[in-house]
Amino acid sequence: MIIIKKADALSQLLFEKKKNRKQTGFVPTMGALHHGHLAIIKKSVERNDITVCSIFVNPTQFNDDADFIKYPVTIEKDILLLEAAGCNILFLPPVSEIYPQGIQNQPDYNIGFLETVLEGKFRPGHFQGVCQVVHRLLQIILPHTLYIGQKDYQQCMVIKKLLSLTQLDKDINTEIVPTMRELDGLAMSSRNTRLSTDARQMAPLIAKTLQQIKENIVPGKIDTLIQTAILNLNNAGFKTDYIELANAETLERIDNWDVNQKAIALAAAFIDEVRLIDNIKIN
Ligand code: AMP
């Protein structure tokens, strides 16, 4: 695996590879890699000649300074894991390579409704930051396929919208990889390493609660089911930002469910000052 820190050097190298008809897969990450990331890397390695992974803790997508400062960094371990997974190129840029004009004065992306609900509502500015970094990375790398995780379901929708806004979707395919979980059901996340022992034991309750919604949902009004789920988490010590049932294609909230509606249950909750998110498709 080669490690590249300069955007121009990476673009140049990939340009040469593409001239030789090499298929490129790209996996953007913020590092502190776990098996969820590695599952995505492996998928790209299986299907492409070249897999590029980026590790960049993007300052513009953190709406909470403390979360940014505490974001885990394990770069040496990450390099070993990427090599073992068969990744070919690690892009490890400093902030100045991603934002050569500085982090201010970034374009505004018109992602509409997606920015007003769920993560968009609770993390103002977050998805603008995601669009800024993903747009820049895609311009540098121009992969054939971009690989992203269902764990961040709304982010997947935002990235798809970004690709269509920028017309990058003409050249770049997007593949969404299912969420990898720990044996107890907890969705793998870099932030899990920040959980205390007690909080780590409690954390799978988010996935269990979403699973219960899936098992108990019946057509009709679902407000009691959702309120019970929120109460369940809060009584166990979580501070729940939201639990919602939404249309799986638009993310519009569903208050009255019918079996023909493709739905997804999504949750965000703090435990121990650590904010975790998860989602489960209902049908
Ligand atoms: P992050 O480093 O958290 O920004 O995540 C980088 C990519 O890995 C994103 O596309 C995430 O959706 C994806 N990802 C994170 N956690 C998981 C997981 N548990 N299973 C599958 N993909 C994941």
Write a brief caption for the model.
The chain contains eleven helices and eleven strands. The protein is an alpha/beta fold and 283 residues long.
Task: Describe what you observe in this structure.
- The protein is α/β, with parallel strands linked by helices and 283 residues long.
- It is built from eleven helices and eleven strands.
- It has helices at residues 7-19, 35-47, 65-70, 75-85, 95-98, 119-122, 126-141, 153-165, 197-202, 205-216, 223-235, and strands at residues 2-4, 24-29, 50-55, 89-91, 145-149, 173-177, 220-221, 239-247, 256-257, 263-271, 274-281.
- The model has no long low-confidence stretch (mean pLDDT 97).
- It binds adenosine monophosphate.
- Adenosine monophosphate binds at residues 29-30, 36-37, 39-40, 148-149, 151-152, 177, 179-180, 187-190.
What brief labels describe this structure?
three-stranded antiparallel sheet, binds adenosine monophosphate, alpha/beta, 11 strands, 11 helices, 283 residues, 39% helix, single chain, globular
